[in-house]
Amino acid sequence: MNPVNRLVVATRQAIQAVLITVFVIAGGVFPAAADQPAKQIFGAAKLPAVLPARAIGFYSKGCLAGGIAIPTDGPTWQAMRLSRNRRWGHPDLIALVERLSREAAAHDGWPGLLVGDIAQPRGGPMLSGHASHQVGLDADVWLTPMPGRTLSATERENLSATSMLKKNTLFVDDRVWTQAHARLLMRAASYPEVERIFVHPGIKKKLCDSWSGDRTAMSKIRPYYGHHYHFHIRIKCPPGASGCRSQNPPPKGPGCDKSLAWWFTDEPWAPAKPKKDTKPKPKKREIQLSDLPSACSLVAMAPGPGSEAEVTLGADPIARIARANANAASASAFGALPLPGRIPLPVPRPAR
What we know:
Elements: H1 3-25, H2 38-44, E1 54-58, E2 61-65, E3 68-69, E4 73-74, E5 77-79, E6 88-89, H3 91-107, E7 113-115, E8 138-142, H4 153-158, H5 179-190, E9 194-199, H6 201-210, E10 221-223, E11 230-235, H7 258-261, H8 295-301, H9 317-324
Parallel strand pairs: 5-7, 9-10
Antiparallel strand pairs: 1-2, 3-6, 4-5, 8-11, 9-11
């Protein structure tokens, strides 16, 4: 190693040592050194990492730097399940959700979005629920239209989304399905940034059977288990992003072929056959911080903003973050970090 590289490494290690010391003196636990599953570390973070915006890793194995929140209320959206603190995402995704809400209200007869889970403030594995949603590029949107009033905090926690299916079937119930649902989904799929839209197979079949408009983007609408109460938007890695891995493009064509028909056979829904091996299965290993991309350790320990308001859509968070981190390393390297004046102390959240 040449002298310059040795100096860089030594400086980085020294700064990290100081950060560890600050956490210990403050009575906190240094996340990157804690012997905890990664979901405990990232689930405890209340605010995002004040770093340049970056989706790190893959949708189901990564983290998020420089995330921002969608406001709890907007002209054409309301955020749901606020207690989960999962309305954070990469700025590109938050901007797309806002755009979808606005354009669907203006052109598709959809009064507004009820926004479900996006990601935790720093992404990463969640304490409960999703395997994906880890890099701030996934968002769930309810298939229930937004009501013409502001929902109360209690309603946002307890209100159930509406299933689009006939009871005990795989098929859409025409009493609840409308053409506005179809227009909303097709608009979401039409955005170039969108990689996939996940819906229940019955919803995909309904679109295949009834959509008479342009089908160019229908290949992005993919059938999958669940997703009859909501749809899942997944966008591509931002252009030029390093360390972010997108999925392979979906197959060409609208997807209304044998691949869709398979979902209406017994095979996808049959219970797994028990194996002959009667040995007890080893306990599933929890994902550790070391299993995630190395940059996620720096995301876990990075300072947070002064308040949620500083990193909410509409508050110009990117300029503020840039000013606060004028001496920070580049987004691609995540090198030595400036010593922060304020460090958030992670507190484990109760299991749900």
